[in-house]
Amino acid sequence: MALLEIKNLHAEVAGREILKGIDLTVEAGEVHAIMGPNGSGKSTLAQVLAGRELYAVTGGTVTYDGQDLLALSPEDRARAGIFLAFQYPVEIPGVSNLYFLKAALNTVRKSRGEEELDAMDFLNLVREKMKLMEMDQALLNRPVNAGFSGGEKKRNEIFQMAVLEPKLAVLDETDSGLDIDALKLVSSGVNALRGPDRAMIVVTHYQRLLNHIVPDLVHVLSEGRIVKSGGKELALQLEESGYAGLGIEDEEVARV
Amino acid sequence: MTAVAEQTGAWLAEFTELPAVAPWAQELRESAFQQFAKVGFPTTHDEEWRFTNVAPIARTSFKVAAGGYWYNRPSPVEVLGLEEARQHLGHYASFEQNAFVALNTAFLRESSLIAIRIPAGAVITQPIEIKYTAQDADPALAVHPRVLIVVGADAHCTIVESYSGTGKYFTNAVTEIVAGDRAVVDHYKIQRESIDAFHVATLAAQLGRSANFVSHSISLGGALVRNDVNVVLSEGTEATINGLYIVNGTQHIDNHTSIDHAKPHGTSHEVYKGILDGRATAVFNGRIIVRPDAQKTDSKQTNKNLVLSDEAVIDTKPELQIWADDVRCTHGATIGQLDAESLFYLQSRGIGKEQARGLLTYAFAQDIVDRIKVPALKDPLEQILFEKFHEHRQK
Questions:
Q1: Does B123 touch chain A (CB under 8 A)?
Q2: 8 Å CB contact between A195 and A167
Q3: Taking CB atoms and an 8 Å limit, are B344 and A74 in contact across chains?
Q4: What is the mean pLDDT of chain B?
Q5: Is B38:B99 a contact under the CB 8 Å cutoff?
Q6: Starting from the edge strand earliest in sequence, which strands make up the sheet with B267-276, in order?
Q7: Beta-carbon contacts of residue B6 (< 8 Å; ≥ 6 apart)
Q8: Which of A178, B32, B132, B234 places its Cα 20 to 30 Å from the Cα of B332?
Q9: CA of B174: how far to CAs of B107, B266, B269, B312, in Å?
């Protein structure tokens, strides 16, 4: 049984249909890249998988780990092992990173039938994962993402992922706003989490992230549908001939 | 009988039963009672009380009670008797402006009075705690706590006033603080009255030159609550006036503040934050007066409200009276809901919706709590707020 099976998924926001019939099957251990021009529905797909209420699912099914994913609340999806790395991580003044992460980890652990971590074990775990992401420990006592640079916010997302150890990670434009050093760091953080039991969906506009996080499969999304799927060489082909090479109009290119 | 006479009649009976005091005090009480009998309780036609209807207090016959307090006197705090308090009592909280202050002053007696002096130059690190605890009784009791704090020049002190009780009662408190030049005074008021209680209180502070005064007003309980904080600054005085009010159900809270820049070079910072749920109603009225003399005044006022339900109502109004021309005065008010994106972010990490709402609500109040410098106050308050937000959502 596949870890994730999306069938004919339709979704809209404010009455406008964004996803127009997505079919996608992801097996445990696989890394899938979803590429596409701006406005193709990549981020919508990521948010729909995480349960954002802003998007109304109007048709189709999503089966995750044998369950009807669409019937679950966002928190129940997270507890079942889904993690969304946000394109724009949210700043939450007044809630410390440490408190937030501890609450999140203990809820997720509880639902896995594991014991809550005590303060010492939690700190040790957090320190180890922070080292991996080369993050300053002082960030722990700061409010969630508040005053973080763009790069720090993205690293914080992958750091959270490392702490929560999801079964299915959805990375939404994790490369956007990162310089090459930060990109390498984030990618190595992601690669360290690859494993036979964990699947990843990497959503990106550009091929450059996929030089560092090498996908098993690449899908091209256009106007709410997957128009082409292939191996990692498909990403390279896109790099050379652009979306236009596939007969897809890229808004960003069109504007130039 | 007129409506006013009807309301004041029951109080007159109580007034005549008061034990005798020194003639000057008797005179003060009588003038105050006459004032109260003349104006009666305010109505919503009165601009100062436009959004707060005190009819539930006016139509209840209370039995006046004394005592019910506890306070500590860390050295070298001096306790003043009624006689020694004479030159200050009633000088800062005017009974002519406020019927409730008049009523409190009318019921002035030694057994309801806490009057203390911090000698000039004394630095007292241990907080001076004043606790009023009201009892449930039939008929319901009215208490008129009266506090006078005289802080000498260059003295430093922290004062914590707290109010709590059980059942239905009426607390009508007046606190007067007079701070000498360069005095540093941190004042906390924690209002945790019972959910059926009426609480009306005035804090009047007269601050000396270059004095530093901080008022923290935390309001959690009470069915009908009105807080007046009136501060008068001198030259170079710095005043910080902060407040946090949290209401739910059918609670009503009204915070009226008045910051009077009487002299030049004064600074005032004011932040009041409110969290409203259920069908609760809240009022914030922030008056800032800058007198013609008070050049180089720097004043900033902020009122922020977090509204958690569709039925809660907040009325917020700045009231700036600026008579000087070389000043900086800013004010702002916001009314908002919990941020949907922040909620989703927390939920997407496994934190349940209710817990996420509680966390964000707590976070809204965090900066006010962070400014509390007394650990013995801050820690339990954090706990109370956590529990409050939890129980809020259980209802």
A1: no
A2: no
A3: yes
A4: 94
A5: no
A6: B69-71, B128-134, B156-165, B184-192, B212-219, B238-247, B267-276, B298-307, B328-336
A7: none
A8: B234
A9: 11, 25, 23, 29
Please tell me the distance from the alpha carbon of residue B165 to that of residue B227, in angstroms, as a whole number: 17
Domains of chain A: 4-255 (3.40.50.300)
Contact list, A104 vs chain B (CB under 8 Å): 346, 349-351
**In chain A, which ranges are E strands?**
4-13, 16-26, 31-35, 56-64, 67-68, 82-85, 92-96, 143-144, 168-172, 199-204, 217-222, 225-230
Per the listing, tokens 């003043």 go with B80
Q: Say how many CB pairs under 8 Å bridge A and B.
A: 77
ipTM of the complex: 0.95
Q: Does B21 touch chain A (CB under 8 A)?
A: no
SS (H, E, C) B34-54: HHHHHHCCCCCCCHHHCCCCC
Which of B255-293 are b and which e, b meaning 16 or more Cβ less than 10 Å from the residue's Cβ?
bbbbbbbbbbbbbbbbbbbbbbbbbbbbbbbbbbbbbee
Q: Does A54 contact chain B (CB < 8 Å)?
A: yes
- pTM summary value: 0.88
Per-domain boundaries in chain B: 3-338, 339-395
Lookup: tokens for B45 = 């036609």
Task: Establish if B347 touches chain A: CB-CB under 8 angstroms.
Answer: yes
pLDDT in tens, B77-116: 999 999 999 999 999 999 999 999 999 999 999 888 999 9
* pLDDT single digits (tens) B109-166: 988 899 999 999 999 999 999 999 999 999 999 999 999 999 999 999 999 999 999 9
CA of B30: how far to CAs of B81, B105, B204, B314, B327, in Å? 20, 9, 21, 38, 42
